[in-house]
Amino acid sequence: MKYMMFVCTDTEPETDDSAVPDIDKWVAENDAAGRRLEGDQLAPPSAATTVRVRGGQLLLSDGPFAETKEVIVGYDILECADLDEAIEVVRAHPMAWHGRIELRPFPGA
Predict the structure, then answer these.
(1) Which of 3, 68, 90, 91 is the most buried (most CB within 10 A)?
(2) What is the pLDDT of residue 24?
(3) What is the pLDDT, as a whole number, of residue 10?
(4) What is the per-residue pLDDT for 59?
(5) pLDDT of residue 90
(6) Cα(first)–Cα(last) distance of the chain, in Å?
(7) 12 has which bridge partners?
(8) For 107, left (φ over 0), alpha (ψ -120 to 50), or beta?
(9) CB neighbours of 26 closer than 8 A, spacing ≥ 6?
(10) Which residues of the chain fall below pLDDT 50?
(11) Cβ atoms of 2 and 106 closer than 8 Å
(12) What is the DSSP-derived secondary structure letter of residue 12?
């Protein structure tokens, strides 16, 4: 089953850096195991463009669609047997320690 990982900042990160996993090791292990299909960092929220169509008119605004203290800074797409495996994969990602990660399955995947 495919899962999208939304990698986000958090206002209350882990304070003990000694236990935080290494991102390069996480990427290499999950790429080699075929669990990580793709992933990347995103440009900062100031680079976002929000697109809407209302009454047939195209409306564009600079910035993210929601103003929050936490922002999405990257993503990964995982292929895992089930949610339990996806949670174990995400548990070892450094942003699970310094930020937060939201997992969502792709419907029908």
Answers:
(1) 3
(2) 95
(3) 92
(4) 93
(5) 96
(6) 5
(7) none
(8) beta
(9) 92, 93, 94
(10) none
(11) yes
(12) S
Distance separating alpha carbons of residues 41 and 28, to the nearest angstrom = 16
Q: What is the DSSP string of 15-65?
A: S-GGGPPPHHHHHHHHHHTT-EEEEEE---GGG-EEEEEETTEEEEEES-S
CB-based contacts of 2: which residues, under 8 Å, 6+ apart? 37, 77, 78, 79, 105, 106, 109
pLDDT at 45: 87
pTM of the model: 0.84
Give the CB-side neighbour count of residue 104, counting CA atoms within 13 A. 7
Rounded to whole angstroms, how far apart are CA atoms 20 and 10? 15
Cβ neighbors of 19 (< 8 A, separation 6 or more) are 97
Note the pLDDT of residue 69. Answer: 81
Lookup result for tokens 């008119």 = 57
Q: Using CA atoms of 73, 79, 83, 43 in order, give the dihedral in degrees to the nearest 10.
A: 10
